[in-house]
Write a structure and sequence with these properties.
Oligomer: single chain
Structural class: alpha+beta
Strand content: 15-25%
Largest sheet: 7 strands, mixed
Strand order of the largest sheet: 12-13-14-18-15-17-16
Radius of gyration: 29 Å
Number of domains: 4
CATH topology of the largest domain: Cytochrome Bc1 Complex, Chain A, domain 1
Number of helices: 31
CATH class of the largest domain: Alpha Beta
Number of strands: 23
Helix content: 25-40%
Shape: globular
CATH superfamily of the largest domain: Metalloenzyme, LuxS/M16 peptidase-like
């Protein structure tokens, strides 16, 4: 897309006397010309004259720094340069989404650059950068960017890894003025944050709250894994969040020392990608970063060490350290790694060819492992992955989850599959199958590169800098892959497989809930025990093709094709009651989405059948259709791009798949065949049942797990359909019951098929006639599912108390109010979204900024569209038990004030502008409109209310929000829940 600022450098200076203008040639034509308010692009307020910007001096198109020393073809879309202070930059024009500019500043320093006394400082500085800086007063940065339309977290964020700290800003609807200001302000934040004693004291409780909320079984397991696999290396003890002791030791002086040591121009990379001339973007980098000077002498990067085998290890069988980690309630798991030293590579084409052969080798093994698990193996899943984590090792990692308590059998089973791959080459048929999968992925990457978001490109650049490799265009990757097809031979794959499992250091960790189950020595014995591959059988079944599949039924022509009345969407009707919505577009070449809504969702399920809901989420697709089992589904997908997500909603079931233009017809066949001729293999059901049985106890390990298990069940007044099945319920479930329940659910209720994106309309109508139109007429939905009663718990003066078995300083608190549901009140649901975000910002200010009690308190609104009720507005926070009363007091005070006074103008603007920009960006993609119109084939309200989408979100006056708050927050006292550690539960109930 051409930008109005895409012009020669010679006339850039002329912009100084022009008014600020959007950095894009034109807004993408609204795809909704029939809308009363067709989602216009947001209009920037009057701005001062645009600043003068000189032409860039240090851009080097012929010598891009990231490609030096490689033979990777240069991607000419990137313009790269180096400043005299050694800061490197890369900029690129990209118009996806229109008007957006994505800025990334990467500092080549993360937690591995800390000393023992500085653990957590890299992440702490990330926080302090956003608190106050050269140009921003205390707490001003986030509100400023919100007023420009950048949402906190989604558009304005930062991340700290062991090796890098990255600051990001996605600036929507940029003008030259706002872009110039943003680059200047962002540069000031990173170069000159206000690292004062007051700011350290203010931010430290927030960082400690973030650390506390991350604690729990998952974090302890991750820490133990890192400590084992990277023993005697800095990575073993360098979790970016740090320790309580070192964080509490943070002072103005030692934090400034870390910033001074590592925040230097020679350690910084700036990437800017967006809807503007690259010369302009380069000039802005040079304008605000050229005068940055590091203080003092540059520090040497620390040595990250290398994995080393203990003394005396037999190099012929180098199983070194083993560790058994006991976590009550957690699912068993086992990981072992073959570790080699990390080495800086020269990122050449030949190096990448080797990586592709490695990937092919792991793909063959992973396919065999999955087939073994499906075919009666002793493990739920297993996978092999090659990785180079944090520049600390070059490893082959194997993960597995035992099916039962017999972890030894599972380990032997997985080791046998790997040993077979190491001992003998794969067949050419196995390789060809994986080659087809890779080819479709790489070809799709080329096709989708035309609509790749600028934010993704900016992320790819800073990630390449982090791993010390170049970047390659999708076209280069595809050409490289297709040019080496003759190298994907059994001998080559076999050679690379052997290398993957060769190394001087092998470490293994077993996770178990039972402290009596094993010790380190037992794990070492199991890792070195002889294994046999005699019982293994490689899958020699012939591939299934679509040409071999039977028709769904007698093809039928549609009985009506008519405009829906919005966009250019057409409604297609068949005589069996199936309806379809079709919207062919051209702005996302090659990409299409097929969505099938059927049945009545949760409302069609009886409460005594609820155990089969979660089992259906996991196993329904895998049970296959007709004569096609789960392996057959994989074979059908070879060389194609399919999706098969399955969702269970309050009033409907949903199949959803992203596919390609040429695969839409086959995607339709898969979905239709599942409804018309479902298969009922018991193996996927039993596997899902075992997985749920093994994982259920893990929900009780921390407050978040308890909420995931019980919150929706409680919010629906203990309706069993919203509860996770426990061991007793799972014990009573069997394959026959699963088949009986889902046979009924798949056959009843209406069917709507939505196809949006790039496709041939005539071909898709014909494919619909051969698939969904050919199905028998549907059974009607049961009367009780049409307008079901939806209950909400009564307000409670004292919160309901649940308990978790985790850390004593972790708790969670919830307060919720009932709202409503149904498409008839869609405008109300949108206003509730805005009200919830205002509430959320206030709660964030109170609990995080003022009290430091919670890192990320949250308020959200849920309004089901397919049932008339069941909605809720809910506030939630994780915090220490002592702060629970403060949460409820703060939330009640906010609710009362909103009901009495409504939101203030500025806080409403901080919410509405990011929503306005989100709508402006999102409407250019077909999935946005699919999400708005899904269900509209038989529900006129969704079409009618689409016309007010823009005004509902962005033009609702403050008085309406006050009335909305009065209606919902002022009439129900709120239902309260607290999740406390076991020992604190009694105190909370007093």
């Amino acid at each position: 897309m051409k930008s109005i600022l895409r012009r020669s450098v010679a006339v850039i200076a002329l912009l100084a006397v022009l008014p600020a203008a959007p950095l894009k040639a034109q807004q993408a034509p609204s795809p909704a010309p029939v809308l009363a308010s067709p989602l216009p692009p947001s209009t920037a307020p009057a701005a001062p004259p645009a600043p003068a910007i000189s032409a860039p001096q240090y851009a080097k198109p012929a010598d891009p720094w990231i490609y030096r020393g490689t033979d990777i073809p240069i991607d000419p879309d990137w313009l790269m340069g180096e400043l005299p202070n050694k800061l490197r930059y890369a900029v690129r024009e990209n118009g996806v989404p229109p008007g957006q500019i994505s800025i990334r500043v990467a500092i080549d320093a993360g937690s591995l650059y800390e000393t023992e006394e500085e653990r957590g400082f890299a992440h702490l500085i990330e926080h302090l950068v956003f608190r106050q800086s050269r140009d921003f007063g205390n707490g001003e940065a986030i509100p400023y960017f919100q007023r420009l339309g950048a949402a906190l977290g989604a558009d304005t964020n930062a991340t700290t890894s062991p090796t890098q700290t990255v600051y990001q800003l996605d600036l929507p609807n940029a003008t030259l003025q706002t872009l110039d200001d943003s680059v200047r302000l962002f540069a000031g934040m990173i170069r000159e944050p206000t690292l004062s004693s007051d700011n350290v004291r203010t931010e430290l409780p927030i960082v400690l709250a973030e650390r506390r909320e991350r604690l729990g079984p998952d974090q302890r397991i991750a820490d133990a894994t890192r400590q084992l696999f990277f023993a005697d290396q800095p990575l073993a003890s360098r979790n970016p969040i740090g320790t309580v002791e070192t964080l509490q030791g943070a002072t103005q002086d030692n934090v400034r020392a870390f910033h001074r040591r590592w925040y230097r121009p020679e350690r910084a990379t700036v990437a800017i990608v967006g809807d503007a001339d690259p010369q302009l973007l380069a000039a802005l980098v040079e304008k605000y970063f050229t005068d940055w000077e590091g203080q003092g002498r540059a520090a040497e990067a620390p040595d990250f060490g290398k994995p080393e085998a203990p003394r005396g290890v037999d190099r012929a069988n180098p199983v070194g350290e083993t560790r058994v980690v006991v976590e009550p309630g957690q699912q068993r798991g086992l990981t072992f790694a073959v570790l080699r030293p990390w080495q800086q590579v020269v990122d050449t084409q030949e190096y990448n060819r080797g990586l592709l052969i490695d990937s092919m080798a792991t793909a063959v093994i992973n396919r065999r492992l999955e087939e073994r698990a499906r075919g009666g193996g002793s493990f739920l899943f297993a996978a092999v992955n090659k990785d180079r984590p944090s520049r600390s090792a070059n490893g082959t990692f194997v993960t597995l989850a035992p099916l039962t308590e017999d972890w030894r059998a599972a380990l032997a089973d997985v080791r046998a599959v790997i040993a077979d791959a190491v001992a003998a080459p794969p067949t050419q048929a196995e390789i060809d199958r994986e080659v087809a999968e890779f080819d479709i992925a790489f070809a799709n990457g080329v096709e989708q590169s035309r609509i790749q978001a600028g934010s993704e490109l900016a992320n790819e650049l800073v990630n390449a800098v982090d791993i010390r490799e170049a970047i390659a265009s999708p076209e280069t990757v595809l050409e490289l892959f297709r040019g080496m097809r003759d190298r994907f031979t059994p001998a080559a794959i076999h050679e690379h497989t052997q290398a993957l499992f060769t190394g001087e250091v092998i470490r293994a960790m077993l996770l178990t809930p039972d402290p009596m189950e094993a010790d380190d020595a037992a794990l070492r014995t199991a890792m070195t025990a002889p294994i046999s591959t005699e019982a293994l059988a490689r899958n020699g079944a012939e591939a299934i093709t679509f040409a071999q599949l039977p028709p769904v039924g007698a093809p039928a022509a549609p009985v009506a094709v008519a405009p829906l009345g919005v966009l250019d969407v057409e409604r297609v009707s068949f005589g069996n009651g199936v309806t379809a919505l079709l919207w062919p577009t051209t702005n996302e070449p090659g990409r299409a989405t097929v969505r099938v809504r059927f049945g009545t969702g949760l409302q069609g399920v009886k409460e005594d059948e609820s155990v089969y809901l979660d089992l259906g989420r996991q196993a329904l697709v895998g049970t296959g259709f007709g004569e096609v089992d789960q392996n057959g589904l994989d074979q059908l997908a070879t060389g194609r791009k399919f999706g098969w997500n399955f969702q269970i909603e309050d009033g409907t079931f949903v199949f959803d798949g992203q596919t390609r233009r040429e695969d839409v017809a086959d995607q339709l066949y898969l979905f239709a065949a599942k409804l018309a001729d479902p298969r009922w293999d018991a193996a996927p059901f039993e596997r899902a049942k075992a997985a749920q049985r093994l994982s259920y106890d893990s929900f009780g390990g921390d407050p978040n797990g308890v909420l995931n298990r019980d919150l929706q069940w409680l919010l629906h007044d203990r309706d069993a359909r919203y509860r996770k099945p426990d061991a007793a319920a799972l014990a009573g479930a069997d394959a026959a019951g699963f088949q009986q329940v889902w046979t009924r659910l798949l056959a009843q209720g209406p069917v709507e098929v939505d196809v949006f994106g790039d496709f041939d309309k005539a071909a898709v109508i014909a494919a619909l006639g051969q698939t969904f139109g050919a199905m028998p007429a549907r059974q009607p939905a049961p009367a009780e599912a049409i307008d079901p009663p939806v209950e909400f718990p009564a307000a409670n003066a004292e919160p309901e108390v649940l308990r978790h078995t985790g850390d004593a300083d972790q708790a969670a608190a919830v307060i919720a109010w009932p709202t409503g549901g149904g498409s008839a009140d869609l405008p109300r649901s949108r206003r509730l979204d805005v009200l919830a975000q205002v509430f959320s910002n206030r709660l964030m200010d109170g609990l995080r900024e003022r009290l430091g009690a919670s890192y990320a308190p949250f308020v959200g609104s849920n309004w089901p569209l397919d049932v008339n009720g069941g909605g809720q507005l809910m506030a939630l926070a994780q915090l220490p038990p002592s702060a629970v009363p403060a949460f409820f007091a703060e939330a009640q005070e906010i609710a009362t004030d909103l009901a009495t006074n409504g939101p203030q103008a500025d806080e409403l603007a901080r919410v509405v502008e990011p929503i306005r920009q989100m709508l402006d960006r999102a409407q250019t993609g077909h999935t946005f409109w699919l999400n708005q119109l899904s269900g509209a084939a038989n529900d006129p309200a969704r079409v009618q209310h689409l016309r007010t989408l823009w005004t509902d979100y962005t033009e609702t006056p403050p008085a309406d929000y006050r009335a909305l708050a009065q209606e919902y927050l002022g009439t129900h006292g709120g239902w309260k829940l607290v999740v406390l550690p076991q020992e604190a539960a009694a105190a909370a109930s007093r």
